[in-house]
Design a protein that fits this description.
eight-stranded mixed β-sheet; 2,3-Dihydroxybiphenyl 1,2-Dioxygenase, domain 1; single chain; alpha+beta; 2 domains
């Protein structure tokens, strides 16, 4: 199956209970700059939205302004979470029509939205659960984000510049789906968007004494867009995927991996901003160089910060995971630096899962 031409991830849209407060969190904890706003003052009556940027990453935080909003019930079902992953395409209508022809369910028909800054084109298809993929084209649009959005008003966010922590781009985004559904969604990405499978992990790769999961990674033809898809595997106790599915109320985005050129600097900055990370036991570091070979980073610094390391045939990578960023044990973030490696940290799975299980035990959900 040929690719639907996708240039990059245009933005990730979150649906949250209070977009203004969430924007404050992502600015002050993750170093994003708040660049645009939509709401009552910009003649948008049903919702408020904030656009945040860092490097090539764009997050959009949206909240309903009343219970009449068509998506307002998703807050009860899911809590705060990702509702849409928007993909930049050269031709929205062609991408949408091709996806529908291949069997995708439409979520929003193609529209050309126009204001004084030009024409912004968009359409959406349904993915797992009630997550969607939008097709976006802004080639003829020169505004700050999209019609209805205006540059942020200093009265709303004082002119205090955000302090970026070093995020450059989205490396990958991970979805959790129900048991038995992973292959179905791998097939969906292949059939609808022309993705191919990059790698797979089974319960022998990703398991502990108590829980296990299966995972397959799909990517588009250029390799710029990667979506690992997880499902729970049979085990003694409830896995992190089971916990996610329960508290999110179904399948959805579990975590977003953000790439940095200097993970030590980034994690130091985030820790200073009060971001909480998962920790592995210090024994992990005692045999680290035996497992992964020589690395450029200082081992003591990595141990102090809790950063994990893994190596493949092409190099090594460093990674660390935040704790969930809201009250429900659902969405979290990965910080990743690649030194040649294209892998996903297979060698760290066991240590990472045990760290997650310690958190589950504290929550009483293991």
């Amino acid at each position: 199956m040929t690719d639907i031409p996708l240039r990059k991830i245009d933005h990730v849209r979150f649906f949250v209970g209070n977009a203004r407060q969430s924007a404050f969190f992502y600015r002050n904890a993750f170093g994003f700059e708040v660049v645009a706003y939509a709401g009552l003052e910009t003649k948008v009556r049903h919702e408020a939205g904030y656009v945040l940027k860092q490097g090539d990453i764009t997050f959009v935080l949206t909240s309903p302004l009343s219970d009449q909003h068509p998506e307002s019930k998703r807050l009860v079902t899911h809590g705060d979470g990702v509702m849409d992953v928007a993909l930049d395409v050269p031709d929205v209508r062609a991408a949408f029509e091709e996806a529908i022809k291949r069997g995708a369910k439409p979520a929003r028909a193609p529209e050309a939205l126009e204001d004084e800054h030009g024409v912004y084109e968009t359409a959406s298809i349904q993915a797992y659960g009630d997550t969607t993929h939008s097709f976006i084209n802004r080639d003829r649009y020169r505004g700050v984000f999209a019609p209805g959005y205006r540059p942020i008003d200093p009265e709303r966010y004082q002119e205090k510049t955000a302090r970026p922590v070093g995020f450059a781009a989205i490396d990958h985004m991970v979805a959790n789906v129900e048991e038995g559904k992973m292959n179905e969604w791998v097939g969906w990405y292949n059939k609808i968007l022309g993705f191919n499978q990059l790698v797979s992990f089974d319960d022998k790769d990703i398991s502990t004494e108590y829980s296990a999961l299966m995972s397959k990674v799909v990517q588009n033809g250029t390799g710029r867009i990667k979506f690992p898809i997880n499902e729970p595997a049979k085990a003694k106790r409830r896995s992190q995927i089971d916990e996610y599915l329960q508290y999110y109320g179904g399948p959805g985005i579990q975590h977003i991996a953000l790439i940095t050129g200097d993970i030590i600097k980034t994690v130091r900055a985030m820790r200073a901003n009060d971001v909480s990370f998962l920790r592995v036991p210090m024994t992990y570091y005692e045999t680290l160089t035996e497992r992964v070979g020589p690395i450029r980073e200082d081992l003591k610094e990595l141990a102090d910060l809790g950063i994990l390391v893994d190596r493949d045939d092409e190099g090594y990578m460093l990674q660390i995971f935040t704790k969930p960023v809201a009250d429900r044990p659902t969405l979290f973030f990965e910080v990743i630096q690649r030194r040649g490696s294209k892998s996903f940290g297979k060698g760290n799975f066991k240590a990472l899962f045990e760290a997650i299980e310690r958190e589950q035990e504290l929550r009483g959900t293991l």
